[in-house]
Predict the 3D structure of the following.
Amino acid sequence: MTENFVSGEKRGHLILVGFMGAGKTTVGRALAALTGRQFIDLDGWIEEKAGTSIKNIFSDKGEEYFRALESEALAAMMQRTHCIVATGGGIVGRAKNWELMRRLGTVVYLENDWETIVSRIAACPDRPLVTGKALEEVQALFERRRPLYETADLCVPVTNQDPAEVALTIVEMLSRETHRA
């Protein structure tokens, strides 16, 4: 079931955005399996290129350095077509990233409620933007980013959904959009 999903100058990628713990990597893998597309996790790409973990990048070089690497990784996707791309939760904070994501393809927001996010990030304490922060600070970050996420081409509620179901929902939504165009 390979769909094209290309319009205009877009590269035909499906770009997954959402807060940390939204399920971008898990849903991305399920989408790749469903569509036969290559899956690319930008955080994994960054770690491979940097030769170290995201956590180490944050602690050794800081968030701004990481954000520059993140933008570079996103720009590298212009060399590819028709991939499923899982982004980091903060990629939406730079306007140039939004411009690039829109050129790359369809941006899909995996929308979770705060309670689900908390349960997921609590299970993975290695997330650099959570380490040493009060829950209220993390929630404030979530609330600041939410309006940015909501400007995605598609907003897909994923709370209490199986990743395979979410992947199927995304493909169905994209198929409907393609038929309307």
In short: Strands lie at 13-17, 39-41, 84-86, 105-111, 154-157. The chain has eight helices and five strands. The chain has one domain: 13-159. The longest helix spans residues 163-180.
